[in-house]
Amino acid sequence: MFDEVRANKIRSVILLVFFFILIAAIGAVSGQVYGDIYFGLIIASIVTTIYILISWFSGDKMILSMSGAKPVTKKEYPHLYHTIEGIALAAGLPTPKAYVIEDNSLNAFATGRSPDSAAITVTTGLLKKLNRQELEGVVAHEMSHIKNYDIRFMMLVAVLLGAVVMMSHIMLRSLFYGGGRSRGRSSGGLMIIIGILLAILAPIFAQMIRFAVSRKREYLADANGALLTRYPKGLADALRKISKDTDVLDKKTSKSMAHLFISNPFKKEKSGKESFFATHPPISERIKRLEQM
Amino acid sequence: MDPIYIILIIIGVLALFVIILYNGLIRLRNQVRNSWSQIDVQLKRRNDMIPNLIKTVKGYAKHEKELLTTLTKERTAMMKTSDMKKKAQHSDKLSDALKSVFAVSESYPDLKANQNFLQLQEEISGTENKIAYARQHYNDMVLRFNTKIEQFPANMIANSLGFSKREYFKTPEEQRKNVEVSF
């Protein structure tokens, strides 16, 4: 458990450094085009530093608002609150804030920088369709992500790599639709260079996001969750309901956030054919492991 | 090298070693204390809600006097005792009595329709759950603490530094999932 915490902290720092170097490099390349490599480098460094600080301190808020999650009070959702408070006690952590997404699909995620500033989000569909033990199982799974500091790393992956993927989409689109043409020639050339650079990088980054959710991470959260409730069947039943449910998350969830959820919000799992590149381990396998505990 | 330096170095290393060990024990002991206070908070919360519950149920279920008396009795007994085992025992009896109250409420449609009662039911079963979880965490922490001070090398200094084993807030195994309230 504690090794896992340390590993996640180190991974987070590596990601930050990597992101900084990447954007600074893009800045240097752009600067080169204009003839002043240092100017580009400095501007890019300043911008990246600011973005990193924003990501660090309010990445969770960005994710919550992008997913359409709303903070809820104890009065509105006493049942959810009691469940979260109970599991937090079992884990020996401060109680995370509760958020709800108004949606009929069954899903949940946790985010935050550390256990002291964490939030757990569930869909209203989840609250409606799961019984107490099943909801406890799901919340315990999310609580394990919090305890392990998975939330920190996954938050940074979402907001940093997500930004690169988004930027490359914008660049590519403006290239295709001639957004750069109206400006001066040198500007257009710059756009093309950055565009091509990002076009190459984007799929690599998208792939990295997928790998951020290693199967190991999800299996570990399942196992630790079961340890918290001492009732693996609760989470197993919940996962079974989630996999059978046909509702897909309506909200325009960004692809760079898929890895945060307890089950892939875009999927509908194709039977047996579990892709090597999937963001989540197959639910059937997760259920099987829980039932063997 | 002068032997005096070698001795000083050995003493220094030993002192450092003891300090690290001591701080570790302190941290663990504070965690045990903190997890105990988490149980205490929940027990108190439940105790505060019981008079309210009794008042609400009394109006509808006139034949359940005995059950309500048990509630009052166990509640007072639990508040009075400071012995860990007895407290756990009374707490368990209180849980059973509450479970019975919610079970018999099934046969009083008026009571079941009472908004105040429903709210209390959610609050109390939520608290029951939290008590169970806080207990589980406390017992985990006690296990860790007790193991630590019995193990070498902590056992050499634990006693002389005033660390002693903690008592579990023990519960029968089936206790965990007993507050299922079916509607």
Question: What does this molecule look like?
Answer:
The complex is a heterodimer of chains A (293) and B (183). With 293 residues, chain A is of the alpha+beta class. Chain A has ten helices and four strands, in the order ααβαβββααααααα. Helix content of chain A is 65%, strand content 6%. A four-stranded mixed beta sheet of chain A has the order 1-2-4-3, with helices on both faces. In chain A, α1 runs parallel beside α6 (150-176), α8 packs across α9 (232-244) and α9 (232-244) packs antiparallel against α10. The longest helix of chain A is centred in the first third of the chain and has 33 residues, at 2-34. Mean pLDDT of chain A is 83; it is low at 179-184 and 269-274. Chain B contains six helices and no strands. Chain B has helices at 3-60, 65-80, 84-104, 109-113, 115-150, 154-158. Chain B has 183 residues and is an all-alpha fold. Chain B is rod-shaped and about 90 Å long. In chain B, α2 runs antiparallel to α3. The interface between A and B is medium-sized, with 17 and 21 residues.
Strand content of chain A: 5-15%
Mass-distribution shape of chain A: elongated
Number of helices of chain A: 10
Write down how many β-strands of chain A occur, each being a DSSP E stretch of 2 or more residues. 4
Helicity of chain A, as a percent range: 55-70%
**Helix-strand category of chain A:** alpha+beta
- Structural class of the helix and strand makeup of chain B? mainly alpha
Query: Which chain pair has the greatest contact?
Result: A-B, 17 and 21 residues
Could you give the count of β-strands of chain B?
0
- Major sheet details of chain A: 4 strands, mixed
As a percent range, the share of strand residues of chain B is under 5%
Radius of gyration of chain A, in Å, reads 21 Å
Q: How confident is the prediction overall: mean pLDDT of chain A?
A: 83
Question: What pattern of helices and strands is seen along the backbone of chain B?
Answer: HHHHHH
